[in-house]
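Example with several molecule types.
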Amino acid sequence: MKRITLIILALGTLANAQNTPIKKDSSNVVLDEVLVIAAKKNKIETAMKMAVSVDEFLASSDNISFIKRGAYAWEPLLNNMSTERSTVTIDGMHIFGACTDKMDPVTSYVESNNLSDIDVKSGQEGSMHGATVAGSIDLKRKSTAFALGQTWNGAYQSGFEFNNNQFFNLGNVSYSSDKLVADGSISYRKAKNYTDGNTDEVEHSQYEKFNTSLGIAYKTTNLSSVRVDAIFDKAEDVGYPALPMDLSLSRALITSVTYKQFFEDKLIKVWDTKVYFNTIEHYMDDTTRPENLVHMDMPGWSTTYGLLSKVNLKKENYSSEIQINAYDNLSIAEMRMYPQDRSETTMFAYSWPWVTTRYAGLSISNSWDISEKSQLNFGGTLGLNYNYSKYIEFNWIFHPGASQEKTRFLPNLYASYQFNASGFESSIGGGYGHRAPSVSEGYGYYIYNSFDRYDYIGDPDLENEISYEANASAGFKNKKGSIKAQVNYFYIQNYIIGRILSQGSPMNYQSVGVKGYTSLDHATLFNFSMHANYSILNNLHWKGTLTYARGLDENKNNLPFIRPLSYQTSLHYSYQKIGFRTSFNGDLKQIDYSPEYGEDETPSYTNWNISADYTFYIKNYKTVFQIGAENVFNEYYSTYADWGNIPRMGRNIFTSLKIDL
Amino acid sequence: MKRLHFFVIVIFVVVSSCTVEKTDYEAELSTETTEYIEYENVTSITSGDYTVNLEALNGTLYKGYNEIHLSIINTVTSESLQDAEVTFLPIFTDANGNTSSCPHAYNLEYDATEDYYSGFAVFTSESDTTVSWQLYINFQVDTQSYAINQTITVEEQTNMNLNMTAFTGSDNEHYFIALVSPQSPGVAENNLVAGIYKYNQPTEAEGTFPDLSQYSYSAVQDYTLLLDPRMPEASMGNHSSPNNEDLIMESDSLYHGVVNYTMTGNWTLNFILQNAEGETLKGTEVSTEFTPGIEGAKSDLYIDILF
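Resulting structure tokens for the full complex:
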């Protein structure tokens, strides 16, 4: 009922918005332009599809790949490293998933219609918001700028995908005046099981997601504003075909208050301070899997408070950003097993024994334009990371006497030099950084990993992971097209990974043994990507991407989840109001797989996708209709990062309609 | 603006609706077990000018190990009797009228700071309508001897963490193993304390009742109690825990070891009892295989616990 109320409310808002004449005033005062709070156009769409999920959008980025446990909530891998090694933030705010099995990466708690952009930074350049090895993914929320007159804007998007009967409705509306700005969005998606390339239904791959957001900004003085933001996300009945459990409910409330102060004719340009709070609850459910021997309840909670304060400085050819970042997170995960005779006592343990993480860091990033052609970027972070395990006795079972409290210093440094001349561009850079073990790596207790079928135990006294990084890029650009190659290389000391323990016995009945998170002496990772685009005709564009990566442990054995050689090529043709796109993408055979970590050889695959769109006007409202098909050949495949080799979606015909109001 | 207010209200209604409660871990640990710390009066017996107060945890004597405190008060002067020789003998009478005893401390030790006499008894069965327990307490004041004979009630021990077992070893001796601590274990490393006693078989025929030689028990010296804790629930597939330590004797004449419980619930402590020479008196090694769906076989010698 509540949802229906919300939808009615939202529709009401939209209907009203339609009746409001859109006032456009091009003669905005300079100050109002300055007071833009990250006003950006909606870029959340891919080359193929205009209505995409956040995951699908991220997947179109060169250095992001995904571990997929089903059709929903994919875990983003940045530079072929899992989420422990990257920081994922929303407008710089730290949020931590509440699921020990990584069913809920941060990206699953937002929706494409409340984001304006996703900022991906590779390696140590991404350490501004917190210690990282792989880099950072910052999800930028939509926020409309103050306007002179009253302005209403909105968009409504709806669509249907035939493979999994996914029906979605996304609406967003914004109001803007000279004193007040409001952004609201609401979305609802519901999908049934998808079918694979053999047209077999993949059981437990359904999902249902509701998301809404609201942001209100008020201009307190000519040079300052206050903004209050909230996102509420709720996913229900989400299947994870690759896991032995599904999700009955997950909810997130993400809130923040931001104060922004601008300065005229000063070294300091803007001071931006935000306090935030977010809370996540996540309830796994195995009652949908009667084949399970043991019924378990596995609820998880994650609550984070934080502060983010930054100033931007600029003088002539030098600009700098100084940031203070602090947060406090409490992660709790429980497991309760039920005996077959339900009259017997249940069995209880914490898989995250009330683990507190506090982080405070001071970061600085500088950009110095040495000349018109060259630029030096450099910066660093000094962070203090504190962990506390309330029920340390759980951790003591495997690590007797391990420290209940642990404080770590986390330095991060980077520098890069860019050179551009007559279409040629190149860069070279390096980085050094530490990261603290994640909650699972440090304090996890019998966390079942259905990929290699081991129960994982954390070690509170793990050493910091230390990354030495080098990167370079070279490219050429002209009016017709561009080509760019990028490489990076990570030498990671104390690389944290699960190793089989000789002691203890499995707790989860599907498990084959116990692994403890331990530090390898080192591991290395190499990533290469090449990106090109070319305008064959004025209305015919080609794009291509090639990526390759290799990850090795100290004994030159392969690391898991490293993407084999992959490619993507697409053509876009537009004629008057019609657009036509086609693309091929695929991975070659995964030769360098890691049997030690539960991987097997994954064969190659190719996907062919096509789509067409038509733009027209309904009463002056721009409307785009798109129809297309993914995996046109209906190929049966699974990728190197599909958990338990679950098959990907077979042929999927999608349609969507977008109206700009 | 009203619309925005509606939005905010609706969002808060949605947010504040149902949620799963977090487990109260401390309460969770005490659902199956109660930890008693206070010694309370079990019974008071008067003999002549003296009253003997018998105290035990929770004021109750249970089957299994009981630590007991005895205070002896002169009812005339209200002063306590200090540093006297006090003996303590529990006698069990079965339905046929046969008598026996149980592991106990015969000579009670005087504790000057607490001003009581302390000892213990490992009651091997509960009192009921057909069987009974009697205490024979003797003490001497100057030349005057006092003998007290009091029927007591031994109740069922509902806390399985204080379970006991009695058996005949391969050496044909009668042994008793009684858990002493922890009363309320946690999902943690727990210091496991047990008393291991032996019945000293009489070499001569019974004299005048109660003939002490017929009811003599002692703590076994320098034995080892090998420990392998496992979860008996079939779905747990013979699950065990790491870093456990076998029980060895310490200066308090009790056996101390370490047991790790990885989660709450039913556990079986599989034991092998070895004498000082390392010979196995009772108990068998259990399988270490993980067998989901199949209950692991228990040792010949085991105690079940639950928390």
